[in-house]
Amino acid sequence: MKKNVPDSVVIKGHCDHDLLISLAVEITNRAGGKDELASKFSNMLRQCVDDVIMTPKTGRRSYDELEKTEKTYIGTRVEIELRAMLDLPKGKLDTCILGHDVDIKNTMGGNWMIPTEAVDHPCILVAADEARAICYLGLIVARLDYLTAGQNKDAKRSISADGFSNILWLLREHPYPPNFWRTVEPDIIKRIFTGKTGNHRMAALFREVQNVPISREVVEAVAQQLDFMRRLRADNGKGTRDHLAKEGILLLSGNYDAPLIEKLGLPFCEGSEFVSYKVQRSDLIHLASEKGFDIVQFK
Questions:
Q1: CATH label, 17-175, candidates 3.40.50.300, 3.40.50.1240, 3.40.600.10, 3.40.50.720
Q2: φ and ψ at 221, to 5 degrees?
Q3: pLDDT for 40-65, tens place per residue?
Q4: What CA–CA distances, in Å, run from 174 to 1, 3, 138, 157, 197?
Q5: Is the pTM of this model over 0.85?
Q6: Looking only at Cα atoms, what is the longest distance across the chain?
Q7: What is the CATH number of domain 184-290?
Q8: C-alpha to C-alpha distance for 212 and 193, rounded to whole angstroms
Q9: Is residue 250 exposed (0-12), middle (13-18) or buried (19+ Cβ within 10 Å)?
């Protein structure tokens, strides 16, 4: 997305104000409130992109490495996931909200392509900026006055520079979970995925990437097995947590180990996140043992 997005002029008195506000309120309520919308939307968008990149299977680490058809599919996936997230029906366009046919447009670039059938209809605008890890969610009525005069071979038009100010933003430059694999060095990724079993790969993940919250989705992708959660907790001495403990490494869950995570001064973890920590002081071994961790003496 371009860095200088103009402020919205969709205020009381604007010709699209009442319609866009009513749609914004409906979308927000369906998501469970403003905070829930922000959280659900950004995580959904991250998942849509990561599921196409498929780092564990393809070795690719970024959106730029995708084929053209894959990039197009992300837009379709976002449309499907957004409808499901908000429990919206299919309409004559992509969906129907409060009796209005609404198109859903997604971009990983700086603009959206509006088809002729969406002209004069409300559109939900979705954008993800991978480089800056921010995302956008807006609403616009796709009036010709807001679109470029030029069009592509499919007769689609972009939103003009002046048209951008007619977007009502629900989320603007909102933090968006970065692609985890872009934060990890290629040689580390290679070491993680050389493991022949799920346990080996998960142990390598938490051995190589410590003191950083790691999502359940990343762990599941690395494990590539159905029972990975069981092995993360403990598995009669055979699980990932057990193997790491023998190396003096704590594998902590944001759901079950939040107090210990806080005492260790580690970053806050959501309930579905995990973080590993190398114990380097004897007093911390005692603290960990009180919480049920059988940590060996550090070296």
A1: 3.40.600.10
A2: -65, -35
A3: 999 999 999 998 988 877 878 788 89
A4: 12, 13, 12, 26, 37
A5: no
A6: 70
A7: 1.10.10.10
A8: 19
A9: buried
